Amino acid sequence: MATATTTAVHDQHEHPPAGIMRWLTTTNHKDLGILYMSFGAIMFFIGGAFIVAVRAELLLPGLQLLSPGMYNQLFTLHALIMVFGAIMPFATGLNNYLIPLMIGAPDMALPRVNNWGFWILPFAATLLLTPFLLQFSGVGSGATGAGWIMHNASLDLQSGIGIDFAIFTIHLLGLSSITGAINVVVTVLNMRAPGISLMKMPLFVWAWLITAFMLILAMPVFSAAATMLLTDRHFGTHFFDAANGGDPILLQHLIWFFGHPEVYIVLLPAWGLIPHILATFSRKPVYGYRAQVYALWTICFLSFIVWSHHMLTSGLPLAAEVYFMYSTMAVSIPTSVLVFCWLGAIWRGAMTFETPMLFALGFVAHFGMGALTGLILPAVAVNAQYHNSYVIVSHFHYTFFGGGIFGMMAAAYYWLPKFTGHMFDEKLGRLHFWLTTIFFNMTFIPQWFAGLDGMPRHVADYPLKLSAANLVSSAGAFLLGLAQLLLVYIVVKCVRGGPKATGQVWEGAQGLEFTLPSPPPYHTFETPPEVK
Amino acid sequence: MMNEPEVMNEHEKRERRTVQLVVALMLFVAFIYAVTFFKLPLWLPALQ
Questions:
Q1: How far apart are the CA of A240 and the nearest CA of chain B, in angstroms?
Q2: ipTM of the shown complex
Q3: Measured CA distances, A146 to A84, A152, A285, A288, A378 (Å)
């Protein structure tokens, strides 16, 4: 009887419920990984559409299409969606799908929490976008326009309902992120197959373990700051209200204490997967494994003690300015270790340039530019000029897009055959890489020079002398957006069919996930593999 | 190769460790949230 029951349950697990119920109720890490990645991809296009509207407004000087208020809403939603709705969920999808496969675990440690963590996200996104949509029916004053982390206290305290929706969204996202992070920590520390010691884990798993610790430390601060904003707005507290003895700068401290680690939370998963891709297509082992692990931990530590370099113009005492300048510059040391290890991985390797490798190399080049420009910005003497200008916009897009998005695309192409069981169209993949690279640089190089010429962020208009830079940048942004439609076509085509992918997929690929067939069975490693 | 009681024992140990880790991490999150809410408004202005 016991045997029969076991078989029945086993059968049910092997054949999940069909249709929508499978996706609503699934606790399978691969299903949830696909859900997370699909959600991230959809939000990537929604966030992209918002910024296309912003760039359309900036195509010519003067106000053509958008009111300043609508402009503020669009760039704020673009940033919130891209960071919290697109890159983070996509990276979480990768960890859900890949970590159990990489460490030989049957699933994540907390599968039901995993399901809950995902299904919070669509509600959070709906909550964020609701006031934006309601304004077209004459209800409310629109979504928040206070910037991606709402660190302008007076704007936050005086804005309409959009900020309340954003505050609730942040709480929901915090809940989702923290549960997801706890799940990763417990899975990695507790579910590894025999033989996989910590220092034998793939770098992607290390990177996610460190990211999870960063989320656990940083996210409650962001959530608490949002709660304080809520109580200031509706329950009579005065944390940030200068008129009643509060401190508006306190909000900046709290928000940036979260906001700077958040940059690394977005980037670390990419830093963890890039060494695997570079090693695969160079036919070499990962270079400098230990150095990269220690560098990732060092960056994690430093990220929590440098937050006020975002506030160098807020009137900090000189000693604090000098401290934050040098501590921020110190981040370049472990970051350089990573970059040199990546270069070491391809040095004298038998390189081939398939699409994932192209995106990985694009990642190294563009992230390098973002990191180098980031080295200049904390210098107190020059920060006064660059602060809140398009120099900053250009810099952080080289890190977020050039680093984060290029990294995610490299990963998507690298593991897509593993996920779907089919090879994608390599020619189209390479075309997608080149179009993305050209139009990405066409968008953000002119912004650097516009910033140097004095163009401020968050303003819908600009002087005539900046017309050429903005025209090129807007054209680049439109074409960059169009080029991403090619990615949709490539992925859909790959899901529907194509040449069969082998288990190993790529000639030089290493790792437990490549010992499984492509796509892997619904349940894997129910008996832990023996790893030597 | 572990026999069945050893496998069960290992499974129970793993479950116990999972619960301990989850509780510890949740308490840590609550601690950070509380410190941010109650203490940082007093400590951080000293930086100014």
A1: 9
A2: 0.88
A3: 16, 7, 46, 42, 23
